[in-house]
Amino acid sequence: MHAFASAVTLAAALLFAVPAHAQRVGVLDLDGDKKDQLRQQVEKALDAAGELQRVPFEEYQSAAAGLGLKGSRALAPAGVAKVARSLRLSAVLSGKVSSKGFAAAILDPAGESRWSRELPLKGGKLTDEFARKLAQQVKNVASAVAAEGPVSAGPAPAAAAADTGSAPAEPDGLGLDLSGDEPAPAIPSFDGERREPVYREDSPPETPSRPAQARAGIQRVGPKLLRLTLGAAGTWRTYCARPGVAQCAEYDALPEDQRPAGVTISFSPLVPYAGGLVGVELFPLARVLDGPLAGLGVTGQYGLGVSLLKVRSESAVDAAEAQDVTALDHAFQASATWRWHFALGGEPGAPNVGHVGIHGGVQGRMFEVDQAANSPLPGSHRLYGAAGVELSVPLARFLKVEAGGGLFFGANPGVDELAAFGASALGNGFSAEGGLAGDLVGPVGYTARFRYTRFWDVYEGKGQKWDSGGAAEESYATVSGGLTLAF
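^ that's the sequence the OP posted. Answer follows.
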Protein backbone atom coordinates (compact mmCIF):
# COMPACT_ATOMS: atom_id res chain seq x y z
CA MET A 1 0.00 0.00 0.00
CA HIS A 2 2.87 2.30 0.83
CA ALA A 3 4.49 1.52 -2.52
CA PHE A 4 1.22 2.30 -4.35
CA ALA A 5 0.88 5.69 -2.61
CA SER A 6 4.48 6.52 -3.50
CA ALA A 7 3.81 5.67 -7.15
CA VAL A 8 0.72 7.89 -7.24
CA THR A 9 2.67 10.75 -5.68
CA LEU A 10 5.48 10.34 -8.22
CA ALA A 11 3.01 10.23 -11.14
CA ALA A 12 1.28 13.39 -9.95
CA ALA A 13 4.61 15.14 -9.61
CA LEU A 14 5.59 14.13 -13.13
CA LEU A 15 2.18 15.15 -14.47
CA PHE A 16 2.41 18.70 -13.11
CA ALA A 17 6.14 19.15 -13.57
CA VAL A 18 5.93 20.37 -17.16
CA PRO A 19 3.27 23.05 -16.59
CA ALA A 20 5.09 24.19 -13.49
CA HIS A 21 8.30 24.82 -15.46
CA ALA A 22 6.69 25.97 -18.72
CA GLN A 23 7.43 29.62 -19.47
CA ARG A 24 4.34 31.69 -20.24
CA VAL A 25 4.62 33.89 -23.33
CA GLY A 26 2.25 36.13 -25.28
CA VAL A 27 1.90 37.40 -28.85
CA LEU A 28 0.32 40.79 -29.60
CA ASP A 29 -1.50 41.39 -32.89
CA LEU A 30 1.01 41.86 -35.73
CA ASP A 31 0.42 45.09 -37.63
CA GLY A 32 -0.07 44.54 -41.38
CA ASP A 33 -0.52 40.77 -41.04
CA LYS A 34 -3.24 40.09 -43.63
CA LYS A 35 -5.65 37.32 -42.61
CA ASP A 36 -3.50 36.68 -39.51
CA GLN A 37 -1.41 34.18 -41.47
CA LEU A 38 1.92 35.23 -39.95
CA ARG A 39 0.47 35.30 -36.45
CA GLN A 40 -0.91 31.79 -36.84
CA GLN A 41 2.44 30.60 -38.15
CA VAL A 42 4.32 32.10 -35.20
CA GLU A 43 1.82 30.76 -32.67
CA LYS A 44 2.11 27.29 -34.20
CA ALA A 45 5.90 27.49 -33.97
CA LEU A 46 5.70 28.57 -30.32
CA ASP A 47 3.35 25.69 -29.53
CA ALA A 48 5.81 23.30 -31.17
CA ALA A 49 8.85 24.75 -29.37
CA GLY A 50 8.08 22.93 -26.13
CA GLU A 51 8.41 24.19 -22.55
CA LEU A 52 6.28 27.21 -23.46
CA GLN A 53 2.72 28.01 -22.48
CA ARG A 54 1.29 30.50 -24.99
CA VAL A 55 -1.27 32.91 -23.52
CA PRO A 56 -3.92 33.98 -26.08
CA PHE A 57 -4.14 37.70 -26.81
CA GLU A 58 -7.77 37.69 -25.64
CA GLU A 59 -6.56 36.63 -22.20
CA TYR A 60 -4.00 39.45 -22.30
CA GLN A 61 -6.77 41.96 -23.09
CA SER A 62 -8.97 40.61 -20.31
CA ALA A 63 -6.15 40.87 -17.78
CA ALA A 64 -5.38 44.42 -18.89
CA ALA A 65 -9.02 45.43 -18.47
CA GLY A 66 -9.02 43.89 -14.99
CA LEU A 67 -6.06 46.11 -14.10
CA GLY A 68 -7.87 49.21 -15.35
CA LEU A 69 -5.66 49.46 -18.43
CA LYS A 70 -7.42 50.57 -21.59
CA GLY A 71 -6.09 50.85 -25.12
CA SER A 72 -2.74 52.60 -25.21
CA ARG A 73 -2.02 52.01 -21.52
CA ALA A 74 -2.36 48.27 -22.01
CA LEU A 75 0.02 48.25 -24.98
CA ALA A 76 2.63 50.72 -23.74
CA PRO A 77 5.79 49.25 -22.11
CA ALA A 78 4.49 50.15 -18.64
CA GLY A 79 1.21 48.42 -19.43
CA VAL A 80 3.00 45.36 -20.81
CA ALA A 81 4.96 45.22 -17.55
CA LYS A 82 1.79 45.25 -15.40
CA VAL A 83 -0.05 42.68 -17.52
CA ALA A 84 3.05 40.48 -17.72
CA ARG A 85 3.31 40.40 -13.92
CA SER A 86 -0.42 39.65 -13.64
CA LEU A 87 -0.27 36.77 -16.15
CA ARG A 88 3.24 35.68 -15.11
CA LEU A 89 4.51 36.20 -18.66
CA SER A 90 8.21 35.81 -19.32
CA ALA A 91 8.21 37.26 -22.87
CA VAL A 92 5.88 39.08 -25.26
CA LEU A 93 6.29 39.13 -29.05
CA SER A 94 5.26 42.22 -31.02
CA GLY A 95 5.92 43.34 -34.59
CA LYS A 96 4.95 44.93 -37.90
CA VAL A 97 4.67 43.49 -41.40
CA SER A 98 5.74 45.72 -44.29
CA SER A 99 7.13 45.42 -47.78
CA LYS A 100 10.59 45.17 -46.22
CA GLY A 101 9.72 42.15 -44.08
CA PHE A 102 8.69 41.47 -40.50
CA ALA A 103 10.09 43.83 -37.84
CA ALA A 104 9.90 41.59 -34.76
CA ALA A 105 10.49 42.67 -31.15
CA ILE A 106 10.55 40.53 -28.00
CA LEU A 107 9.73 42.34 -24.75
CA ASP A 108 10.51 41.13 -21.23
CA PRO A 109 8.17 41.43 -18.20
CA ALA A 110 9.54 44.92 -17.52
CA GLY A 111 8.37 46.07 -20.96
CA GLU A 112 11.96 46.35 -22.20
CA SER A 113 13.14 45.14 -25.61
CA ARG A 114 15.43 42.13 -25.29
CA TRP A 115 15.66 41.46 -29.02
CA SER A 116 14.43 42.97 -32.29
CA ARG A 117 15.24 42.16 -35.91
CA GLU A 118 13.93 42.64 -39.45
CA LEU A 119 13.07 39.17 -40.79
CA PRO A 120 12.45 38.40 -44.47
CA LEU A 121 9.01 37.25 -45.60
CA LYS A 122 7.77 35.38 -48.62
CA GLY A 123 4.08 35.58 -49.41
CA GLY A 124 3.48 37.26 -46.06
CA LYS A 125 5.03 34.40 -44.07
CA LEU A 126 8.40 33.34 -42.67
CA THR A 127 10.15 30.28 -43.91
CA ASP A 128 9.56 27.30 -41.64
CA GLU A 129 13.19 27.53 -40.48
CA PHE A 130 12.87 31.20 -39.59
CA ALA A 131 9.58 30.57 -37.77
CA ARG A 132 11.29 27.85 -35.74
CA LYS A 133 14.25 30.11 -34.93
CA LEU A 134 11.98 32.98 -33.93
CA ALA A 135 10.07 30.68 -31.59
CA GLN A 136 13.40 29.49 -30.19
CA GLN A 137 14.45 33.10 -29.62
CA VAL A 138 11.23 33.77 -27.68
CA LYS A 139 12.01 30.66 -25.66
CA ASN A 140 15.58 31.86 -25.04
CA VAL A 141 14.37 35.24 -23.79
CA ALA A 142 11.74 33.59 -21.58
CA SER A 143 14.34 31.21 -20.14
CA ALA A 144 16.79 34.03 -19.48
CA VAL A 145 14.08 36.05 -17.73
CA ALA A 146 13.13 33.03 -15.61
CA ALA A 147 16.80 32.55 -14.64
CA GLU A 148 17.06 36.19 -13.55
CA GLY A 149 14.20 35.80 -11.10
CA PRO A 150 11.38 38.32 -10.50
CA VAL A 151 11.63 41.36 -12.76
CA SER A 152 10.48 44.82 -11.72
CA ALA A 153 8.65 47.17 -14.08
CA GLY A 154 11.68 49.44 -14.35
CA PRO A 155 14.52 49.49 -16.86
CA ALA A 156 16.19 46.14 -17.36
CA PRO A 157 19.87 45.87 -16.37
CA ALA A 158 22.19 46.46 -19.26
CA ALA A 159 23.72 43.04 -18.95
CA ALA A 160 20.34 41.36 -18.92
CA ALA A 161 19.23 43.27 -21.99
CA ALA A 162 22.09 41.82 -23.99
CA ASP A 163 22.30 38.37 -22.41
CA THR A 164 19.36 36.18 -23.32
CA GLY A 165 21.01 33.00 -22.21
CA SER A 166 20.79 31.64 -25.72
CA ALA A 167 22.91 28.97 -27.25
CA PRO A 168 25.61 29.86 -29.83
CA ALA A 169 24.17 31.22 -33.04
CA GLU A 170 23.01 28.81 -35.68
CA PRO A 171 23.82 29.78 -39.26
CA ASP A 172 20.59 30.53 -41.09
CA GLY A 173 21.88 30.50 -44.64
CA LEU A 174 20.93 34.15 -45.21
CA GLY A 175 23.44 35.84 -42.95
CA LEU A 176 20.79 36.66 -40.34
CA ASP A 177 21.78 36.07 -36.74
CA LEU A 178 18.77 34.94 -34.76
CA SER A 179 20.69 34.12 -31.60
CA GLY A 180 20.23 37.49 -29.91
CA ASP A 181 23.94 37.71 -28.90
CA GLU A 182 24.12 41.25 -30.33
CA PRO A 183 22.88 44.11 -28.13
CA ALA A 184 19.17 44.44 -28.89
CA PRO A 185 18.23 47.69 -30.66
CA ALA A 186 15.27 49.76 -29.61
CA ILE A 187 11.78 48.59 -30.41
CA PRO A 188 11.05 49.49 -34.04
CA SER A 189 8.95 52.58 -34.64
CA PHE A 190 6.07 51.46 -36.81
CA ASP A 191 4.88 54.37 -38.97
CA GLY A 192 1.90 54.09 -41.24
CA GLU A 193 -1.76 54.90 -41.70
CA ARG A 194 -3.79 54.93 -38.52
CA ARG A 195 -6.40 52.21 -38.46
CA GLU A 196 -8.79 50.61 -36.02
CA PRO A 197 -7.24 47.95 -33.74
CA VAL A 198 -7.65 44.49 -35.20
CA TYR A 199 -9.42 42.32 -32.63
CA ARG A 200 -11.00 38.95 -32.73
CA GLU A 201 -14.77 38.75 -32.61
CA ASP A 202 -14.92 37.96 -28.90
CA SER A 203 -12.57 40.74 -27.79
CA PRO A 204 -13.72 44.22 -26.78
CA PRO A 205 -12.78 47.19 -28.96
CA GLU A 206 -10.24 49.56 -27.46
CA THR A 207 -8.51 52.77 -28.52
CA PRO A 208 -4.71 52.69 -28.10
CA SER A 209 -2.89 55.97 -28.59
CA ARG A 210 -0.59 56.64 -31.51
CA PRO A 211 2.76 56.16 -29.69
CA ALA A 212 1.61 52.95 -27.99
CA GLN A 213 0.09 51.47 -31.14
CA ALA A 214 3.33 52.23 -32.98
CA ARG A 215 5.38 50.34 -30.40
CA ALA A 216 2.97 47.43 -30.29
CA GLY A 217 2.25 47.24 -34.02
CA ILE A 218 -1.47 47.85 -33.59
CA GLN A 219 -3.44 49.49 -36.40
CA ARG A 220 -5.86 52.36 -35.78
CA VAL A 221 -8.55 54.09 -37.69
CA GLY A 222 -8.02 57.79 -38.17
CA PRO A 223 -7.94 60.57 -40.72
CA LYS A 224 -5.25 60.91 -43.32
CA LEU A 225 -2.83 63.75 -42.66
CA LEU A 226 -3.47 65.31 -46.08
CA ARG A 227 -5.93 64.65 -48.90
CA LEU A 228 -5.93 66.53 -52.21
CA THR A 229 -8.73 66.49 -54.78
CA LEU A 230 -8.61 67.51 -58.44
CA GLY A 231 -11.72 67.14 -60.55
CA ALA A 232 -14.13 68.40 -63.18
CA ALA A 233 -17.69 69.63 -62.72
CA GLY A 234 -20.83 70.52 -64.65
CA THR A 235 -23.37 72.93 -63.16
CA TRP A 236 -26.96 73.88 -63.97
CA ARG A 237 -27.98 77.28 -62.53
CA THR A 238 -31.51 78.63 -62.42
CA TYR A 239 -32.60 82.10 -61.34
CA CYS A 240 -35.88 83.93 -61.03
CA ALA A 241 -36.82 87.42 -59.79
CA ARG A 242 -40.40 88.65 -59.27
CA PRO A 243 -41.59 92.04 -57.94
CA GLY A 244 -44.00 92.64 -55.07
CA VAL A 245 -44.14 89.04 -53.74
CA ALA A 246 -42.34 86.80 -51.27
CA GLN A 247 -41.84 83.86 -53.70
CA CYS A 248 -41.54 83.47 -57.46
CA ALA A 249 -44.31 80.85 -57.47
CA GLU A 250 -46.65 83.32 -55.78
CA TYR A 251 -46.20 85.82 -58.62
CA ASP A 252 -46.55 83.19 -61.36
CA ALA A 253 -49.83 81.95 -59.84
CA LEU A 254 -51.48 85.37 -60.11
CA PRO A 255 -53.58 86.35 -63.15
CA GLU A 256 -51.61 88.59 -65.46
CA ASP A 257 -53.77 91.62 -64.73
CA GLN A 258 -53.13 91.25 -60.99
CA ARG A 259 -49.36 90.87 -61.09
CA PRO A 260 -47.33 93.70 -59.48
CA ALA A 261 -45.58 96.02 -61.90
CA GLY A 262 -41.89 95.64 -62.51
CA VAL A 263 -39.29 93.69 -64.47
CA THR A 264 -39.26 89.92 -64.09
CA ILE A 265 -36.22 87.78 -64.83
CA SER A 266 -36.03 84.09 -65.75
CA PHE A 267 -32.67 82.40 -66.15
CA SER A 268 -32.96 79.13 -68.11
CA PRO A 269 -29.83 77.06 -68.80
CA LEU A 270 -29.74 75.21 -72.11
CA VAL A 271 -26.67 73.14 -71.18
CA PRO A 272 -24.63 72.85 -67.99
CA TYR A 273 -21.59 75.03 -67.76
CA ALA A 274 -18.31 73.22 -67.43
CA GLY A 275 -15.59 73.83 -64.91
CA GLY A 276 -13.08 72.34 -62.55
CA LEU A 277 -12.43 72.15 -58.82
CA VAL A 278 -9.60 71.64 -56.37
CA GLY A 279 -9.94 70.60 -52.75
CA VAL A 280 -7.77 70.01 -49.70
CA GLU A 281 -8.27 68.31 -46.33
CA LEU A 282 -5.65 68.71 -43.61
CA PHE A 283 -5.70 66.99 -40.20
CA PRO A 284 -2.46 68.14 -38.54
CA LEU A 285 -3.00 66.11 -35.35
CA ALA A 286 -3.55 62.81 -37.16
CA ARG A 287 -0.02 61.50 -36.55
CA VAL A 288 0.63 62.87 -33.09
CA LEU A 289 -2.65 62.34 -31.20
CA ASP A 290 -5.37 59.76 -30.81
CA GLY A 291 -8.92 60.02 -29.61
CA PRO A 292 -11.38 62.78 -30.48
CA LEU A 293 -8.74 65.47 -31.00
CA ALA A 294 -7.16 63.54 -33.87
CA GLY A 295 -10.26 64.25 -35.96
CA LEU A 296 -9.82 68.03 -35.83
CA GLY A 297 -8.80 69.60 -39.14
CA VAL A 298 -9.52 72.10 -41.86
CA THR A 299 -11.04 71.60 -45.30
CA GLY A 300 -11.29 73.85 -48.32
CA GLN A 301 -12.46 73.80 -51.92
CA TYR A 302 -12.55 76.13 -54.90
CA GLY A 303 -14.50 75.67 -58.13
CA LEU A 304 -14.68 77.69 -61.34
CA GLY A 305 -17.20 77.32 -64.15
CA VAL A 306 -17.99 79.11 -67.41
CA SER A 307 -21.48 79.37 -68.90
CA LEU A 308 -23.04 80.56 -72.14
CA LEU A 309 -26.79 80.70 -71.55
CA LYS A 310 -29.84 82.69 -72.60
CA VAL A 311 -31.57 85.27 -70.41
CA ARG A 312 -35.08 86.61 -71.05
CA SER A 313 -36.47 89.71 -69.38
CA GLU A 314 -40.26 90.14 -69.28
CA SER A 315 -42.06 93.39 -68.44
CA ALA A 316 -45.27 95.09 -69.36
CA VAL A 317 -43.20 98.06 -70.54
CA ASP A 318 -40.09 96.29 -71.76
CA ALA A 319 -40.28 92.92 -73.47
CA ALA A 320 -36.74 91.85 -74.29
CA GLU A 321 -35.86 88.90 -76.47
CA ALA A 322 -33.73 86.09 -75.05
CA GLN A 323 -30.06 86.90 -75.42
CA ASP A 324 -26.78 85.05 -74.99
CA VAL A 325 -24.89 85.82 -71.81
CA THR A 326 -21.43 84.68 -70.79
CA ALA A 327 -20.89 84.29 -67.06
CA LEU A 328 -18.29 83.01 -64.64
CA ASP A 329 -19.24 81.05 -61.54
CA HIS A 330 -16.86 81.03 -58.55
CA ALA A 331 -17.61 78.84 -55.54
CA PHE A 332 -15.38 78.39 -52.51
CA GLN A 333 -15.51 77.19 -48.93
CA ALA A 334 -13.15 77.02 -45.96
CA SER A 335 -14.21 75.15 -42.84
CA ALA A 336 -13.04 73.90 -39.49
CA THR A 337 -13.95 70.21 -39.40
CA TRP A 338 -14.23 67.47 -36.81
CA ARG A 339 -14.64 63.82 -37.80
CA TRP A 340 -15.02 60.61 -35.85
CA HIS A 341 -13.70 57.62 -37.78
CA PHE A 342 -14.86 54.03 -37.53
CA ALA A 343 -14.14 50.67 -39.14
CA LEU A 344 -16.82 48.68 -40.95
CA GLY A 345 -15.78 45.36 -42.43
CA GLY A 346 -12.59 44.77 -44.36
CA GLU A 347 -9.74 42.34 -43.79
CA PRO A 348 -7.74 41.84 -40.60
CA GLY A 349 -5.13 44.58 -40.54
CA ALA A 350 -6.89 46.51 -43.32
CA PRO A 351 -10.37 47.57 -42.18
CA ASN A 352 -12.70 49.69 -44.29
CA VAL A 353 -12.75 53.16 -42.75
CA GLY A 354 -15.67 55.59 -42.63
CA HIS A 355 -16.55 58.68 -40.62
CA VAL A 356 -19.23 61.01 -39.34
CA GLY A 357 -18.44 64.67 -38.91
CA ILE A 358 -19.48 68.26 -38.49
CA HIS A 359 -18.04 71.41 -40.02
CA GLY A 360 -18.45 75.14 -39.89
CA GLY A 361 -16.87 78.07 -41.65
CA VAL A 362 -17.27 80.51 -44.49
CA GLN A 363 -18.52 79.99 -48.06
CA GLY A 364 -18.91 82.17 -51.09
CA ARG A 365 -20.74 82.10 -54.42
CA MET A 366 -19.96 84.68 -57.09
CA PHE A 367 -21.81 84.61 -60.40
CA GLU A 368 -20.37 87.33 -62.62
CA VAL A 369 -22.31 88.31 -65.72
CA ASP A 370 -20.55 89.80 -68.73
CA GLN A 371 -21.18 93.55 -68.43
CA ALA A 372 -20.70 94.05 -72.17
CA ALA A 373 -23.83 91.98 -72.86
CA ASN A 374 -26.03 94.66 -71.25
CA SER A 375 -28.06 91.84 -69.75
CA PRO A 376 -31.02 92.47 -67.44
CA LEU A 377 -29.69 89.62 -65.26
CA PRO A 378 -27.70 90.97 -62.31
CA GLY A 379 -24.70 89.16 -60.92
CA SER A 380 -24.80 87.21 -57.69
CA HIS A 381 -22.24 87.92 -54.97
CA ARG A 382 -22.65 86.12 -51.67
CA LEU A 383 -20.31 85.63 -48.72
CA TYR A 384 -21.87 83.83 -45.76
CA GLY A 385 -21.42 81.50 -42.82
CA ALA A 386 -22.23 77.80 -43.12
CA ALA A 387 -22.49 74.78 -40.82
CA GLY A 388 -23.24 71.19 -41.71
CA VAL A 389 -22.88 67.47 -41.17
CA GLU A 390 -21.28 64.71 -43.24
CA LEU A 391 -21.26 60.92 -43.39
CA SER A 392 -19.10 58.35 -45.16
CA VAL A 393 -20.07 54.66 -44.95
CA PRO A 394 -17.59 52.11 -46.40
CA LEU A 395 -19.05 49.15 -48.26
CA ALA A 396 -15.65 48.02 -49.52
CA ARG A 397 -12.15 49.45 -49.80
CA PHE A 398 -12.99 50.86 -53.22
CA LEU A 399 -16.57 51.92 -52.46
CA LYS A 400 -17.92 54.36 -49.88
CA VAL A 401 -21.36 55.95 -49.86
CA GLU A 402 -21.14 59.59 -48.78
CA ALA A 403 -23.73 62.24 -47.92
CA GLY A 404 -23.90 65.64 -46.30
CA GLY A 405 -25.88 68.80 -45.88
CA GLY A 406 -25.65 72.28 -44.46
CA LEU A 407 -27.43 75.51 -43.64
CA PHE A 408 -26.29 79.01 -44.64
CA PHE A 409 -26.36 82.05 -42.40
CA GLY A 410 -26.35 85.62 -43.66
CA ALA A 411 -26.39 84.52 -47.30
CA ASN A 412 -27.59 87.95 -48.36
CA PRO A 413 -27.42 89.13 -51.98
CA GLY A 414 -24.65 91.48 -53.03
CA VAL A 415 -24.52 95.08 -54.20
CA ASP A 416 -25.54 94.29 -57.79
CA GLU A 417 -28.80 92.69 -56.69
CA LEU A 418 -29.54 95.40 -54.12
CA ALA A 419 -29.07 98.13 -56.70
CA ALA A 420 -31.51 96.44 -59.03
CA PHE A 421 -34.24 95.18 -56.71
CA GLY A 422 -34.39 96.95 -53.36
CA ALA A 423 -32.82 99.04 -50.66
CA SER A 424 -32.29 96.03 -48.35
CA ALA A 425 -32.58 92.26 -48.56
CA LEU A 426 -32.48 89.12 -46.41
CA GLY A 427 -31.08 85.92 -47.90
CA ASN A 428 -30.98 82.29 -46.71
CA GLY A 429 -29.98 78.99 -48.19
CA PHE A 430 -29.03 75.34 -47.79
CA SER A 431 -27.11 72.57 -49.55
CA ALA A 432 -27.44 68.79 -49.83
CA GLU A 433 -25.10 66.34 -51.48
CA GLY A 434 -24.40 62.66 -51.97
CA GLY A 435 -22.05 60.44 -53.90
CA LEU A 436 -19.43 57.72 -53.97
CA ALA A 437 -15.74 57.57 -53.10
CA GLY A 438 -13.06 54.95 -52.59
CA ASP A 439 -9.44 53.91 -52.82
CA LEU A 440 -7.92 52.73 -56.09
CA VAL A 441 -4.17 52.10 -55.97
CA GLY A 442 -1.84 53.20 -53.18
CA PRO A 443 -2.61 56.80 -52.20
CA VAL A 444 -4.82 57.34 -55.28
CA GLY A 445 -8.60 57.33 -54.91
CA TYR A 446 -11.66 58.79 -56.57
CA THR A 447 -14.75 60.83 -55.75
CA ALA A 448 -18.06 61.35 -57.58
CA ARG A 449 -20.76 63.66 -56.18
CA PHE A 450 -24.01 65.46 -56.83
CA ARG A 451 -24.58 68.71 -54.92
CA TYR A 452 -27.69 70.87 -54.81
CA THR A 453 -27.49 74.42 -53.45
CA ARG A 454 -30.44 76.82 -53.12
CA PHE A 455 -30.82 80.46 -52.06
CA TRP A 456 -33.89 82.64 -51.64
CA ASP A 457 -33.98 86.42 -51.10
CA VAL A 458 -36.66 88.85 -49.99
CA TYR A 459 -36.15 92.52 -50.95
CA GLU A 460 -37.63 95.62 -49.40
CA GLY A 461 -37.61 99.22 -50.58
CA LYS A 462 -37.10 100.75 -53.98
CA GLY A 463 -34.53 99.63 -56.54
CA GLN A 464 -33.78 100.39 -60.17
CA LYS A 465 -36.16 97.70 -61.40
CA TRP A 466 -38.71 97.46 -58.57
CA ASP A 467 -40.55 100.08 -56.54
CA SER A 468 -41.61 97.98 -53.56
CA GLY A 469 -39.28 95.01 -53.28
CA GLY A 470 -39.97 91.43 -54.24
CA ALA A 471 -38.38 87.97 -54.25
CA ALA A 472 -35.52 86.24 -56.01
CA GLU A 473 -34.56 82.55 -55.99
CA GLU A 474 -31.36 80.93 -57.16
CA SER A 475 -30.26 77.28 -57.33
CA TYR A 476 -27.21 75.33 -58.47
CA ALA A 477 -27.13 71.61 -59.33
CA THR A 478 -23.57 70.35 -59.74
CA VAL A 479 -22.23 66.98 -60.82
CA SER A 480 -18.52 66.51 -60.12
CA GLY A 481 -15.92 63.79 -60.25
CA GLY A 482 -12.18 63.54 -59.81
CA LEU A 483 -9.13 61.86 -58.33
CA THR A 484 -7.82 62.11 -54.78
CA LEU A 485 -4.35 61.74 -53.30
CA ALA A 486 -4.15 60.85 -49.60
CA PHE A 487 -1.07 60.72 -47.40
